[in-house]
Amino acid sequence: MLARIVGIILGLILATSGYVISGLGTLGTWAVGWDLGPFEPHRTTAGWAAMTLGGILLVAALIPRMGTSRRGTRRRKGSARGGERSLTKPFDMGGPEPAAAIPAMTAPVMTTASTVQAAPAPAQAPASAPAPAAPVGATEFEILRAEMLALCGSEAWNPAARVLARLVRAAETDRERTIAYRDLGDFAAAQGRHDDAAEAYEEAVSYARMVRKAAPNDPTADELLAGALAGVGDTAEAEGRLNEALSAFEEALALRRSPGGREAADPGAQRALSVALERLADLREDRGHRMRALDLYRESYDVTARLAAADPARFGLDLVATRARLEEIEARVAG
Q: CB count, 10 Å around CB of 243?
């Protein structure tokens, strides 16, 4: 966001300076009579050059930044968040993770925790059942989150956005703040507002680190931080900040692999590990590290094959997608 603001300011300064210097017009007394020194004989050329450069900076600052990866050509299992609950998969309140990815929401618009706007729902939004209500005795935060997810499940984007803003304000613990800002990032990322999403995910990571510092031996703290880092990685990759994405994905994967985790006993945690492996592998391939990507996909295939053998209905499609990507990378390495 700061880079865009600086780009807009510099672009405006250069464009308006060039406008006056080239003699096309004036802006009051500003820049009138500027002596260009040795460039004075080339005043018109210098003015047009400044206007052109200023225009390029403005366009670069205002248009969305696009990543350089080939992620759009791949069939992926879903968010790098793996099996965790998110607004891009708003209908899972802790139940089984579906084998096929649920399409991300495209309607909500999020700016800050206190200022929320929402766009009209698309003509054909993904249809899914609403999330179940919060359990009896739930905290205000849990009630609000259950309400928000239920509203997302019924495609009521405007009320969901308002409840999400309340959710952020209602968060009292670092764990709740992590979840709230992670949801905020999901909401913004689903609508393409990568700058807002990146800021929200960074907030989530900072709170998740505090949770993990307070409970270093708690596997759920590792999962919480890994999920927030995956959001950072996804957003950074989408914006073309591949070094940042690589760092976030590597740390998230290390947390998924950490001793004491639930990978061995929890299929959802195993799937999250598999997704983390493939996110990092895809990024490694984009950077030209095909052998490292191949090793990561082979590891993910082993995990996914065990899941599919135990529950074909739930993880069968995951295995098909992983096998296809593995064969694709093997062919590229062999060729």
A: 10
Cβ–Cβ < 8 Å for 54, 18: yes
Nearest to residue 268, comparing CAs of 232, 230, 311, 302? 311
Q: Tell me the C-alpha distance between 14 and 8, whole Å.
A: 10
Strands 108-110 and 116-118 turn out to be antiparallel
- CB count within 10 Å of CB 195 equals 16
Cα 239 → chain centroid: 9
- Per the CB < 8 A criterion, the answer to whether 36 and 46 are in contact is yes
Identity of residue 290: R
> Residue 213 corresponds to which tokens in the numbers above?
């510092």
Whether pTM > 0.70 for this model: the answer is: no
Residue 94: phi and psi, rounded to 5, are: 115, 0
Question: Six-digit token pair at 158?
Answer: 């405007």
For residue 222, CA distances in Å to 142, 150, 228, 229, 249 come to 21, 27, 10, 11, 14
Q: Provide the token pair at 252.
A: 């998230």
Residue 96 class from Cβ within 10 Å (0-12 exposed, 13-18 middle, 19+ buried)? middle
Closest CA to 102 of 186, 160, 204: 186
**What whole-number distance in Å separates Cα of residue 149 and Cα of residue 98?**
17
**What is the Cα–Cα distance from 239 to 202, expressed in whole angstroms?**
15
Q: CB-based contacts of 250: which residues, under 8 Å, 6+ apart?
A: 280
Given a contact cutoff of 8 angstroms between Cβ atoms, the answer to whether 264 and 53 are in contact is no
The per-residue pLDDT for 152 is 77
71: Cα separation from own chain's centroid: 13
Q: Which residues pair with 27 in a beta bridge?
A: 30
CB-neighbour burial class of residue 22 (10 A; exposed 0-12, middle 13-18, buried 19+): middle
214-252: per-residue pLDDT in tens?
A: 998 888 899 999 999 999 999 999 888 999 999 999 999
Q: What distance in Å separates the CA atoms of residue 328 and residue 203, rounded to the nearest whole number? A: 37
Highest averaged pLDDT of the listed ranges 9-18, 150-159, 210-219: 210-219
